[in-house]
Every structure is written in structure tokens, then in C-alpha cells.
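Good morning C.,

I know you're traveling, so I'll keep this short. The sequence:
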Amino acid sequence: MSNLPSKNKTLIRRIYDEMWNRGDPALAAEIFAQPEGVKRFVSQFLSAFPDLQHNVETMIEEGDRVAVRFSAHGIHSGQWMHFAPTGKSIHYTGVTLARVAGDKIIEHHTWWDKASLMEQVSGK
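The C-alpha cells, ready to paste straight into the viewer:
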């Protein structure tokens, strides 16, 4: 049995290693079947947290589905929602569930600790 990651896991890892960590939202077109919303979200988020780095904590694959538990950290150096840049270090965690067909992610859902992030940038 090989220890090499599967094609699906390799595709999912590109979200974190290339699109987020290298700051390349345009890669959404290569990774997702419907990239428009993803590209827009990543672009806007990286404008507020341009040095954001994601770390894949756990990745589990079952058939055409992949689950990822991740953490992220960076500096709040741009406008995010109604929060002006604070220069504060931020950290949050999340989970993504994705379904792959061919060479694209055709369905994905991400849950992340937005409330914690809001507390970190608001100072409350």
C-alpha cells in the first residue's frame, strides 16, 4: 500500500498550500468546478489578512469525499467586514467537506470559527 496522497487529497491540499498560503485566488479556476464565489471570497479575505497561512491538521478521504480540519493564522492588516485594520495577530480553526469529480471540486462546505475571529479583531 502506498503512502502517497491520493489525487483527491492532492487537489484539496492545493486549496491551502497554493490558493491560500501563496495568496493566489485565481487558482480557484483550476480547483473548483464553480470558482467565482471562491475566488471572490479568498481575494477579499486576503486583502484583510494578506499574510494568512493555513495548516492542514487532518485530512480523511472516503470515496469521492474529503474532510479537512485546518487552522489559520495571520495579521489583520486590511479592512475586514466593518473592522478597520488592527495589526493584531489572529488565529482560527475550521473544517471543510468536499466532493471531487474528475479533476475538480464539485461541492464543498466550510465551517470556521468566525465568531472567534470577530472577537480577536474587535478587541472584545
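Safe travels,
E.
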